[in-house]
Amino acid sequence: MLGRTSLAGDSYIQAAFPDGSTLADPTKVTRELLEKAGCTTLHSDLRAVLYVEDDELDVMLMRRAWQKVGLRNPLHVVMDGYEAQSYLSGTAYYANRAVHPMPSLVLLDLKLPGFTGLDLLKWIRGHSTLHALRVILFSSSSLSNDRQRAEGLGANAYWIKPLDPRELEEMVLSLKQLWL
């Protein structure tokens, strides 16, 4: 049996073996090991979404909206552009694709510390294996200049973060219907 569990807000795969033992070390989980354990369904069978967001409250609100809408696609969260680069490159902590699958969609905050959302978008579009990855800029900025810069760098969409949690649920429902 395979489940997703959480530790300090990060979700990771946990495998339960027929003898009742478990393996939750993300560095040791492989698809082959899970298949040997009799796991028939992997969360990675659903298209994953990478949410790049530095505000923990925004992450919590997104996770809540994800649940309320009943979205089963895995939502992987990284807190800055550099961490997103590592995730997308599959390096360091993110090397294990059974645990950290390549996303089919990136929800990208515009105003990240250091390596900004626009910097990351430019890097994605310039990367030979990632250039076709779908990216939605998800920002609190309604400035037309920010939107134009994002579109100029190849963002697939630019969505403004709503203040009302119900509106966020509606946006996540739209995400489910249109993008996943």
CATH class of the largest domain: Alpha Beta
**Biggest sheet: strands, sense, closure?**
5 strands, parallel
- How far the N terminus sits from the C terminus, by CA atoms, comes to 25 Å
CATH superfamily of the largest domain: Response regulator
What's the total count of β strands? 8
Radius of gyration: 17 Å
The CATH architecture of the largest domain is 3-Layer(aba) Sandwich
What percent of the residues sit in helical stretches (DSSP H or I)?
25-40%
User: Can you tell me the number of structural domains?
Assistant: 2
Low-confidence stretches are 1-21, 39-44
Strand arrangement in the largest pleated sheet: 5-4-6-7-8
The proportion of residues in beta strands is 15-25%
Total of DSSP H or I helical runs spanning 4+ residues: 6
Average pLDDT, all residues: 82
Structural class, please? alpha/beta
Morphology: globular
User: Which fold does the CATH topology of the largest domain refer to?
Assistant: Rossmann fold
User: What is the oligomeric state here?
Assistant: single chain
User: What series of H and E elements makes up the topology?
Assistant: EEEHEHEHEHEHEH
